[in-house]
TrEMBL record, chain A:
Gene Ontology molecular function: ATP binding; ATP hydrolysis activity
Keywords, ordered alphabetically: ATP-binding, Nucleotide-binding, Transport
UniProt lineage: Bacteria, Bacillati, Actinomycetota, Actinomycetes, Micromonosporales
Gene3D superfamilies to which the protein is assigned, alphabetical: P-loop containing nucleotide triphosphate hydrolases
Listed name of the protein: Peptide/nickel transport system ATP-binding protein
SUPFAM superfamilies found in the cross-reference section: P-loop containing nucleoside triphosphate hydrolases (SSF52540)
Annotated organism of origin: Micromonospora chaiyaphumensis
From TrEMBL, chain B:
SMART domains: AAA
One Pfam family linked to the record: ABC_tran
Domain ABC transporter stretches: 21-268
Alphabetically ordered keywords of this record: ATP-binding, Cell membrane, Membrane, Nucleotide-binding, Transport
GO CC annotation: plasma membrane
Keyword Nucleotide-binding tagged: yes
Name the UniProt record assigns to this protein: Peptide/nickel transport system ATP-binding protein
InterPro entries reported for this sequence: AAA+_ATPase (IPR003593), ABC_Ni/Peptide_Import (IPR050388), ABC_transporter-like_ATP-bd (IPR003439), ABC_transporter-like_CS (IPR017871), Oligopep_ABC_C (IPR013563), P-loop_NTPase (IPR027417)
Gene Ontology MF term list: ATP binding; ATP hydrolysis activity
Principal localisation: membrane
Length: 333, 350
């Protein structure tokens, strides 16, 4: 028997917007029913990866395979026909919800598009159930998006994405607009549904702590490229790349006394641009450990602990750099 | 002077406030009837003070923030008082408010895409603010816009100044918003989820920009966030809202060490701690849904979800009153405030 195809495969995905090299060679595999978190800096191209998967953007090069089917050259409409089981939750809920539609209509739209017939009563009951799952009251169905708070709108878009029972969910920052207690319930909800329905998920976020609970694997993106990939355990306990280490160290802790005593790991403020990425290692303008070779040579992807990291200081024998050892004075510069 | 002044329950800010919100209520008329969004909220900002505001999604944080300088739509009914250095803003005519906004009170919003104009370059939008409020020439305004963009850490600012908002990533749009907000050196900056779209290494930089602004210009900052780590990092005092009301108000260390309201306690324990939830453990939730405010005017809005609720809680709304030692200026709206430290979360108490 042939093995089941992976839920999603990205092969050397490239997406350029004119001179902007938003995504520059990303390869990633999500097995069926598994959750991969795509983490990284603002502007690193995370949303663009997600938009390429659902064909809101047409990739400049590379391949996108969903459940074994190459969808790189399908139009968005063709993709929707072929793959009604792929959903996306957008990062900016305000921009993705039609302001003229009532919340109930928005949530039920995927059902309507799939041509499923339902009595009005059944539909209303279904909408109420889906809203309830994301912690919204049924009354909300009769409101317009602008009459909701930011977090409520985000939950509406999650309900819309889940109503059709997707096999692959692209979740673009689904919890970043939510307060912690609602965030906790949405993450628990996604984890429950994920376990019950078994959809695979590309979970895009800039908040590592939000994915620790949910992700099986983590991919870290920086300026259009992956700098590290690994299992959740590997990334949290033995991060290899200096950027991953900085991400973990910079997350503020919810304790004012401890937080204010912590040695800040502030990276250099020299944010590189996707218009003109630095030579060699793209992280070098902010990396406290950068040395001559980093400007001259693109670091190779080195296999570490079942994953990979792209940094000259990472060795196949498991040797890793330590950002915190670099000392803050240098880091702050 | 050895006498310890007891704060009255409505005011606990140190020094004369630059902004004083008193008994602010806001409701909306919608197709589904009247929605009460904010119910008798009071808070103050002293010059140079950073006040953090937290609370469940939909509890009225943004509505409170927007009503400060009259940004709400016409469907909003507002009562109460908002004073900027003593001058009443509620009921003030729009042309006056427009002058106040941008120059004296500046905003950074949660969803930058909806507050930036999609058909104007970011340089033009920042320039517009400077031309209107500072009467700068077009050329000077553009040069200043480039300066402001690099101040907030936008790379290749000289090129980005000619970009349209859709050409920027979410995080960069947020930076543009901050550049615009600080353009005229406002007295009060209202930052509604300013770092929500940013990764933590960039967030650290943005929080530093805000702190600098406070230190250099004495700007008072009201920062709304759901990230308790951000609050712990930057806020001097914290206001906790729940279902349209302020349920707790305290200096930051005090609030984290001894939350007196069970909603606050629940919030603190729901916060994900790196290393704790790895794979196995569920995140702590506060069970139940946020009530519709209009349905229970005469009860504690948290009663349905509170492990300590009794008949009193369901019959009358608790006032915001001093708890703990008076010197700490710690207020909570609860008939049965938790006495002990934060380990007493709703889940921990049987
Ligand atoms: N339609 C477009 N035209 C031009 N540039 C674009 C377009 N869409 C995205 N970009 C650019 O591509 C890069 C990646 O953007 P993207 O939105 O994918 O980043 P992101 O990682 O999702 O960031 P954030 O965390 O801020 O949402 C950015 O430099 C952005 O300015
Ligand atoms: N224009 C409006 N018309 C009707 N109701 C509104 C309007 N704007 C906000 N509301 C309601 O007012 C309440 C408070 O909303 P607000 O945006 O202040 O929440 P928030 O605390 O900022 O939440 P979040 O953390 O999700 O941003 C919500 O229940 C919302 O649905
Ligand atoms: S290759 Fe050099 S610049 Fe890049 S992360 Fe490693 S040490 Fe830093
Ligand atoms: Mg994005
Ligand atoms: Mg809000």
């Amino acid at each position: 028997m042939t093995p089941q195809p992976n839920a999603l495969e990205l092969e050397d995905l490239v997406m350029h917007f004119g001179p902007v090299r938003a995504v520059d060679g990303v390869s990633l595999t999500i097995p069926r029913g598994r959750v991969t978190a795509l983490v990284g800096e603002s502007g690193s191209g995370k949303s663009t990866v997600g938009r390429c998967v659902v064909r809101l953007e047409k990739p400049t090069a590379g391949a996108v395979r969903i459940a074994g089917t190459d969808v790189t050259h399908l139009s968005r409409r063709q993709l929707r026909r072929h793959r009604s089981d792929v959903s996306i939750v957008f990062q900016d809920p305000a921009g993705s919800l039609d302001p003229r539609m009532l919340v109930g209509e928005i949530v039920a739209e995927p059902l309507r598009l799939s041509g499923r017939r339902m009595s009005r009563r059944d539909r209303e009951a279904r909408i109420a159930t889906e809203l309830g799952k994301v912690g919204l009251r049924a009354e909300v169905a009769r409101r317009y998006p602008h009459e909701l708070s930011g977090g409520q709108r985000q939950r509406v878009s999650i309900a819309r994405a889940l109503i059709s029972g997707p096999k692959l969910l692209i979740a673009d920052e689904p919890t970043s607009a939510l307060d912690v207690s609602v965030q906790a319930s949405v993450l628990n909800l996604l984890a429950d549904l994920q376990r019950d329905i078994g959809f695979a998920c590309l979970f895009i976020t800039h908040d590592l702590s939000a994915v620790e609970y949910l992700a099986d694997d983590i991919a870290v993106m920086y300026l259009g490229q992956l700098v590290e990939k690994g299992s959740r355990e590997q990334i949290f306990t033995r991060p290899a790349h200096p950027y991953t280490q900085a991400l973990l160290a910079a997350a503020p802790v919810a304790d004012p006394i401890r937080q204010r005593q912590r040695q800040p790991v502030l990276l250099g403020d020299d944010l590189p641009s996707a218009l003109d990425p630095p030579s060699g290692c793209r992280f070098r303008t902010r990396c406290p450990l950068a040395f001559d070779r980093c400007a001259a040579e693109v670091p190779a992807q080195v296999a570490v602990g079942g994953g990979m990291a792209a940094c000259h200081l990472v060795q196949p024998d498991g040797t890793r750099p330590d950002v915190r050892a670099a000392g803050t004075s240098e880091v702050l510069s | 002077m050895t006498t310890v002044e007891r704060a009255d329950t409505a005011s606990s800010a140190v020094g004369t406030p630059v902004l004083a919100v008193r008994d602010l209520s806001v409701s909306f008329t919608t197709e589904g009837g009247t929605v009460s969004a904010v119910d008798r909220v009071s808070l103050e900002l002293a010059p140079g003070e950073i006040v953090g505001m937290v609370g469940e999604s939909g509890c009225g944080k943004s509505v409170t923030a927007m009503s400060i300088a009259g940004l709400l739509p016409d469907s909003a009914r507002i009562s109460g008082s908002v004073r900027l250095e003593g001058t009443e803003l509620v009921g003030t005519r729009e042309p006056v408010l427009r002058r106040v906004r941008g120059k004296e009170i500046a905003y950074i919003f949660q969803e930058p895409m909806t507050s930036l104009n999609p058909v104007l370059t970011v340089g033009r939008q920042i320039g517009e603010v400077l031309r209107v409020h500072e009467r700068m020439s077009r050329r000077a305004a553009r040069a200043r816009a480039v300066e402001l963009l690099s101040l907030v850490g936008i790379p290749s600012a000289g090129k980005r100044v000619d970009n349209y908002p859709h050409q920027l990533s979410g995080g960069m749009r947020q930076r543009v918003m901050i550049a615009m907000a600080v353009a005229c050196g406002p007295k009060v900056l209202v930052a509604d989820e300013p770092t929500t779209a940013l990764d933590v290494t960039v967030q650290a930089g943005i929080l530093q920009v805000l702190r600098d602004l406070r230190d250099r210009l004495g700007t008072a900052i009201l920062i709304i966030t759901h990230d308790l780590g951000v609050i712990a990092d930057i806020a001097d005092r914290v206001v906790v809202m729940y279902a349209g009301r302020v349920v707790e108000r305290a200096p930051v260390t005090d609030l984290f060490a001894h939350p007196h309201h069970r909603y606050t306690a629940g919030l603190l324990s729901a916060s994900p701690t790196p290393g704790v939830h790895a794979g196995t453990q569920r995140l702590q939730e506060i069970p139940g849904l946020v009530p519709v405010l209009s349905t229970q005017p005469d009860a504690c809005t948290f009663a349905d979800r509170c492990p300590a609720a009794d008949a009193t809680c369901r019959e009358s709304a608790p006032p915001l009153a001093a708890v703990g030692a008076a010197v700490t200026h710690h207020l909570a709206a609860c008939w049965h405030p938790c006495p002990a430290p934060r380990t007493e979360s709703p889940e921990a108490t049987p």
